[in-house]
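Figure caption, in words: inputs first, then the predicted bound structure.
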Amino acid sequence: MHYFDYRGGELYAEEVKVSDLAARFGTPLYIYSAATFRRHFSAFDAAFEGLAHLSCYSVKANSNICVLRLLAELGAGMDIVSGGELHRALAAGVAPRKIVYSGVGKREAEIRFALETGILMFNVESFGELERIDAVARELGKTARISLRINPDVDPKTHPYISTGLQKNKFGLDIEASFAAYQRAKELPNVVPVGIDCHIGSQLTSIEPFLEALTRIITFNERLKDIGIVIDYLDLGGGLGIPYDQETPPHPAAYGQALSERLKGRSLTVILEPGRVIAGNAGILVSEVVYTKQTKSKNFVIVDAAMNDLVRPSLYQSFHAVREVAPKGRQPVNVDVVGPICESGDFLAKDRDLAAVAPGELVALFSAGAYGFSMSSNYNSRPRAAEVIVDGDRVVLARRRETYDDLIALEGPC
Ligand code: LLP
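Bound structure (LLP present):
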């Protein structure tokens, strides 16, 4: 459910015409709906109210500081994977005790930053990292709260690039290695195990894999108790999918219900790390048609957004609905919607039935709020798009469009 809809033949973001925003801020333009963010976060968080829990928004999905502030105001904690994300979360006003830190390659300086900040816990992904956190904590005279990230070897049945809980993936430690790591953690003076962590993948469209992983974790937790390790937190990661096309992912309430049934009576605080389910359908990418071009085999709609703005179609063959901003009732034609970048992999949509749009018209790519801007780049020396947040009839420029000078500002002197 989101607040981008058609009224009087025009696409609106809440109370504001998308075409007005494009005229004011230019294209390509990311438009976010504050009401959608609020609605998604509140619905997600409410789904777990039967359990002691903390919803830590996954910063990587959409890390704009204005988005983070909006979520922090609703009480969100944050899931971070870098020092940069920690900086953002703190700048957004998130309490350090609501921040969890995952990732396979935490560097010493990042560990130090997180320890000095006093985050809730590190989700540790290797023996090397465990030792390093202990060493840095010792140097600082601190004790690091940690969880081991368990790789439960469960198939999340999603795109291979975003599956993380299979043995062949680089993430976490398998069950036996995790057990050994907890034993080692017990011996280390400057780390204290406070939780168990697990994240099996992203864009899951069924709750079965989550529950399969949970079953393994619960059994594992019993084994930890046997060796005198009692934890407080169960971090189940993120991963709940959203409808991009015809998918019918479970509602967070169904997930919450299933977790409550399995976890009631246990004195554990559940941590969740939702990203896409909060941000995905809270944003669109608006682009102007530059040219149309017919070849013997294809109709191309060349737009001013490209894979540097939204890489998901190129990287994961993912689907984003493309719609006219002001539909004129024309017959659809089968087209590829492509960008100006010099690669055949630069496409935003393939083989779509889209009205015969003309240069100068606007199209919107839906479900672009998560992993859209946050994965964007300057490839082909394209300044990054602007981001705006609409809140009712109020419009905030959340990030200005980059300029040509911005492109070279960090380079040289040479
Ligand atoms: N927690 C951890 C440890 C993660 O690695 C991720 C996502 C999340 C939480 C949030 O997952 P979500 O709720 O958003 O599914 N760029 C890809 C998605 C990569 C996800 C990486 N990790 C895409 O555009 O589909």
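The chain has a mean pLDDT of 97.
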